[in-house]
Amino acid sequence: MSLKTLIQKCKKRDVISQSEIYQLFAGKLFVLSLKYSKTHQEAEDNLQEAFITIFKKINQFKFKGSFEGWMKRIVINTALQTYRKKNILNLVEENYPDEVEVEIDESEISLDFLLKIIQELPDRYRMVFNLYVLDGYPHKEIASLLGIAEGTSKSNLSRARLILKEKVELNQQKQSVGLF
Amino acid sequence: MLERKNIDRVFQENLKDLEIYPNKVVWNNIEKSLHETNYKKTITLWQRLSGVAMVLILFLSGGIWYNNSKIVRTSINNVSASKVDNVTVENQVPIIQIPKNKQDNLVQGQNTKSKNLIKTQPIFVKNPNSNVIVTSSDISTVYQTVDNKYIVNKKDFIDEIKNKNVLVDADIENRIKEDNVKIVENKKWSVGPTVAPVYYNTLQSGSPISDNLSNSSKSTDDALSVGVKVNYQLTKKIQIQSGLNKVELAYNTKDVSAYISSVKNADNNINTNKPGVIVTPISNLQSDLPSLNDIHKSSVSGTLNQSIEYFELPIEMKYNLYDKKVGLNLVGGFSTFILTKNSVTIVSQDNITNLGEANNLNSFNFSGNLGVDLDYKINKSWYLNVAPMFKYQFNTYSNNSGNFRPYYFGVYSGLNYKF
């Protein structure tokens, strides 16, 4: 059955087609949700909310553009809503130079470690890093989504990169110590 | 020496094709939430549709019945009228139950005792052979099989499941079967032509034509009922079927003499709209002759034939007892018969004499139907069926017509298309 047929059946609220769509995309969308969430539990809650929205609003999908892209936006929006609810108070601003280039040694880094350190980032940094680096949103849009200045988005990104670099390097050191 | 790489690219490349499958509870909750919404919308729609259908059916059957019973009450004694009344009420019960069964359909797969209308059996499981993820209710078993990590590539995830076989337990296999059944059940409608040789007669002696012929020997012609049948799957076990059939019945009374007076408004003893007709069994000819001598008459002898043609509209419920390649169902319901042809003739050696139309046949009458239905599934879309059905007719005549209690038995067979 083609994806288009599945979507059309979902529009008619066919439960089996809904489960097919879920099974097709849950894996990818859960990774997306994990990246935006602080914990595994929060990611599951987000994914759940997002899929309910997807199926309820599937009639709004008019086959213009990718279905996966449309679903991803819903997952991200759901995560942003959770973020907004949690983050009424803003972080203390720290100024870092815009667009810091951060490089790390390319070694074997486990996927769970990469995901873990993203989740450990402070909420705002995590949002900005994900939106900009992993999902291709421009700073202007990020600023608007998070209710911050564009400059803040840029400095948050730089700070996030440095935190991540520190953690990767610390991990690499631990591993090399373990080898000897 | 390790190469330096931009941190953005490290994250982008590593997380690009990663897929992680969440705990099954997530889908359960999604399905629960969606089902609640779907149910509310569907039930509203069904309530409206079934309400309209109920009103139409009750209006039609009630209206028809009311009209007929008015004739009965004015023309016959109260005792037989109330008998007919009771039978009709009993046979209307399946109509009233329609909406209830539709509700059952919406909550199939759950504990029927529960008033909670949410499915307890989530559909998340698919056949592992079809290269689709199967998850268990406890995803931690999967984590453990992959070095305590919950991050796995999709391929590894599937391989782990296949190798360890941790998740394909009896419960999951059962759900896979249910899943397949549900897919088949998606085709809820079926339609097809139906044909049935019909054997019919009366449960008691008597003649609807004339009291004079109550004890005469009677026979029936071979008949065929042809039509179309529509079937709708209400629940896994229950189907409702309807359709339209045409059937022509002919009752014969042997050795009858008919005297037809040329005088208008002359006496008659026959229940037809032709005046001045006296029918009598040939054996009684001598005793009846004196009273007949004083009128101008022509006479004819032969077999008295009453031909009746009906359009039949059945509404039946089918309950499944066994469902494999060959299925067995119990069928019960009732039919509304609409009279479309009605004639009484004397068939003698040389010619056919028309004695008019019977004036005691109701334009609408009913039957209670009971039978079994055997089906043979050719493939997912086509099936053959054979259904021996017994139909007891009531309210056929507007008076008691010498205890003439017609019934008929037909073996209905057809080829049906599911969609």
Short description:
Chain A is mostly helical and 180 residues long.
Task: Describe it.
The complex is a heterodimer of chains A (180) and B (419). By secondary structure, chain A is an all-alpha fold. Chain A contains 8 helices and 1 strand, in the order H-H-H-H-E-H-H-H-H. Chain A has helices at 3-11, 15-36, 40-56, 67-86, 111-120, 123-134, 139-146, 150-179; one strand at 103-105. In chain A, helix 2 packs across helix 3 and helix 3 (40-56) crosses helix 4. The longest helix of chain A has 30 residues, at 150-179. Chain B is α+β, with helices and mostly antiparallel strands. Chain B contains 8 helices and 12 strands. Chain B has an 8-stranded antiparallel beta barrel. At the A-B interface, helix 2, helix 3, strand 1, helix 5 and helix 8 of A face strand 1, helix 1, helix 2 and helix 7 of B. Strand 1 (103-105) of chain A pairs antiparallel with strand 1 of chain B, so a sheet runs across the interface.
